[in-house]
Amino acid sequence: MLTHGKIWTAIDALARRYGLSPSGLAKRAGLDATAFNPSKRVTTEGRPRWPTTESVAKVLSATGATLDEFVDLLDKGPSLRKVPQPIPLIGLTQAGAGGFFDDGGFPVGGGWDQIRFPRVDDENAYALEVTGDSMQPLYRDGDILIVSPNSAARKGDRVVLRTTDGEVMAKILVRRTAKTVELASFNPDHPNLVFPVERIDWMARIVWASQ
């Protein structure tokens, strides 16, 4: 069955096959550079947003891929994710530095280590290692967070986000509107934070943690 997750996974797999990030694929196809960003894959209300047939056609034309090739990625993508795969790993405190993410929040560059992790449904997933005690009591020094940039973040989800000034943080999504994002700290003694959406570069859901 064709699902929202499968078609976005196939687009991401096609980008990697041709040596591109999702943003780079969008640019080559003549689309807005943010067209394939994770934040564009769901509405502000959390409903899935599907790529248009025109966008898919432009992607195939830009890469030279055939429709059969794209359908093959739709069919084989989930089965390829059942085996342990290498996932990029970096320390959470390092993640705010430049060169580790593209403008869509996908891992790029050569500064990542790797771990193998079998239970992930996002081929763009990556891992962040917690350092220090700022996220106690939920996460402690040395814990590994698996982050899925292609998973839609909804109210109550644990997320990682980067602000436009380069700060990377892990929080709980409280509320998201067309204008603001409200986040709660893992430490209940800290007040909630409210950011205007233009201050957030990207936000991705934490799907697993080693605790």
Task: Give structural notes.
- It is a single chain.
- With 211 residues, the chain is an alpha+beta fold.
- It has two domains: 77 residues, Orthogonal Bundle (434 Repressor (Amino-terminal Domain)); 125 residues, Ribbon (Umud Fragment, subunit A), CATH 2.10.109.10.
- It is 22% helix and 26% strand.
- The protein has four helices and nine strands; from the N terminus they run ααααβββββββββ.
- β7 and β8 form a beta hairpin.
- The N and C termini lie far apart (34 Å).
- The relative contact order is 0.15.
- The model has no long low-confidence stretch (mean pLDDT 85).
Radius of gyration: 17 Å
Task: Provide mean pLDDT, rounded.
Answer: 85
Uncertain stretches: none
Helix content, binned percent:
10-25%
How would you characterize the largest beta sheet? 9 strands, mixed
